[in-house]
């Protein structure tokens, strides 16, 4: 089977897929925007900061398999640095991330030929034109859904807007997506033959019309950088880390509410991530947290090692990679099933699973850690061992193996499955 893969910006998930498909001689082409191999000689002549930025767009495959369509994405990168907000306006801006996805989708669709392909592999928001053309050519359509289906996500976020009206500004753009954008998502899923997800939360969010489709579930990998230093039992306040965009989609309001229930000074809440509202807003909700801005990955891991417990009470995710990063640094977890990481929890051994929207249960588990400080090092060790079972190589191999077993052609005409 020969598969064309398309993704506009790339990430660790995409690299793992490309590597596994290439190893099995299943990769036909990879279409992206800014895309390199990392071995280009001209990279060495660039300033170090620009060089590092471009290396984040490098992929472990030969340059002959990379089809780059860079110019709109280059303008987006320039617009971000120049703060040209009009160009970046969600959905409507010429250089918005939505426009980048649609533009690559259009270019991939135009390039499709049936003679050398069996399937196309595309991602949410960037698959519609590609899948329509693929159906005309009788190709299999593989759809990677990285977060809960939009209807589930919107319903949960609307409920959060009612629970915490003051936090609406932190809920993110998905709650305001236009009907055109959500219709596009629905059509993409309808055209898909195979749906790739990272866990049961995303799979369970699929609407009824899509549940009979072939599904491949493969959990994300954990970072290779794991601490080998033994963690002594801590003294003083329990350092609890939250990491991620600072909004109620990730349950930050619930975590604040939980910490308020505990004796003052017993917890040091460390919040690291991107602000979705002015810092003063968060201080009004709960004043006594330590704010840490985003930073390079190695410094993120170092901050994790300075904490005792990681807490992420998310309402909507796909699978939050930060959970496995925290585990790799020896932190037990307090998480909700909606993080996509229920399989990471061995109750009382690697951490605790709590229901969504339950500050009381979060507080209960924090009290448990306060009363069992001596148990934290061993729980952290078990969390680290458990996280090590999840590798990016296994992530890619599981998907590639499943795809290898698919028929080489579908020959199905395009039709509306709704």
Strands ordered across the widest β-sheet: 3-2-1-4-5-6-7
Mean pLDDT: 92
Low-confidence stretches: 410-418
Total strands: 13
**Terminal residue distance:** 28 Å
CATH topology of the largest domain: Rossmann fold
Domain count, please report it. 2
Structural class: alpha/beta
Radius of gyration: 22 Å
CATH architecture of the largest domain: 3-Layer(aba) Sandwich
What level of helicity do the residues show? Answer: 25-40%
Describe this structure as you would to a colleague:
By secondary structure, the chain is α/β, with parallel strands linked by helices. It folds into 2 domains: about 5-220 and about 395-405, Rossmann fold (3-Layer(aba) Sandwich); about 240-390, 3-Layer(aba) Sandwich (Rossmann fold), CATH 3.40.50.2000. About 40% of the residues lie in helices and about 15% in strands. The protein has 16 helices and 13 strands. The chain has a 7-stranded parallel beta sheet with strand order 3-2-1-4-5-6-7, with helices on both faces. The longest helix has 15 residues, at about 95-110. The radius of gyration is 22 Å and the shape is globular. The two termini are about 30 Å apart.
């Amino acid at each position: 089977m020969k598969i064309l893969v398309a993704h506009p910006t790339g990430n660790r998930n995409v690299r793992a897929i490309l590597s596994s498909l290439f190893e099995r001689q299943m990769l036909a082409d990879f279409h992206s925007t800014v895309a390199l191999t990392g071995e280009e000689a001209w990279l060495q002549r660039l300033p170090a900061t620009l060089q590092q930025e471009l290396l984040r767009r490098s992929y472990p495959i030969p340059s002959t398999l990379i089809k780059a369509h860079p110019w709109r994405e280059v303008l987006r990168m320039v617009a971000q640095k120049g703060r040209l907000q009009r160009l970046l306006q969600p959905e409507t801006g010429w250089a918005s991330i939505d426009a980048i996805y649609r533009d690559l989708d259009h270019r991939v669709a135009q390039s499709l030929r049936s003679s050398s392909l069996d399937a196309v592999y595309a991602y949410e928001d960037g698959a519609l034109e590609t899948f329509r053309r693929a159906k005309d050519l009788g190709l299999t359509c593989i759809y990677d859904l990285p977060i809960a289906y939009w209807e589930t996500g919107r319903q949960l976020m609307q409920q959060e807007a009612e629970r915490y009206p003051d936090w609406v500004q932190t809920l993110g753009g998905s709650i305001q997506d236009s009907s055109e954008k959500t219709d596009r998502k629905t059509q993409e899923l309808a055209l898909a033959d195979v749906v790739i997800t990272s866990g049961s939360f995303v799979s369970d969010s699929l609407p009824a019309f899509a549940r009979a489709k072939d599904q491949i579930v493969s959990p994300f990998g954990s970072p290779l950088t794991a601490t080998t230093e033994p963690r002594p039992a801590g003294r003083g306040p329990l350092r609890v880390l939250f990491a991620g965009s600072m909004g109620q989609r990730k349950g930050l309001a619930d975590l604040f509410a939980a910490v308020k229930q505990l004796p003052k000074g017993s917890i040091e809440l460390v919040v690291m991530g991107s602000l979705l509202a002015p810092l003063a807003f968060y201080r009004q909700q709960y004043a006594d947290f330590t704010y840490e801005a985003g930073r390079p990955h190695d410094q993120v891991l170092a901050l994790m090692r300075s904490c005792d417990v990681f807490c992420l009470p998310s309402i909507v995710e796909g699978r939050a990679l930060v959970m496995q990063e925290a585990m790799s640094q020896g932190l037990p977890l307090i998480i909700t099933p909606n993080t996509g990481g229920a399989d990471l929890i061995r109750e009382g051994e690697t951490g605790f699973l709590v229901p969504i929207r339950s500050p009381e249960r979060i507080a209960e588990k924090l009290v448990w850690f306060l009363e069992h400080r001596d148990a934290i090092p061993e729980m952290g060790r078990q969390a680290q061992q458990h996280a090590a079972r999840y590798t990016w190589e296994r992530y890619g191999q599981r998907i590639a193996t499943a795809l290898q077993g698919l028929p080489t052609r579908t020959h199905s005409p395009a039709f509306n499955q709704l």
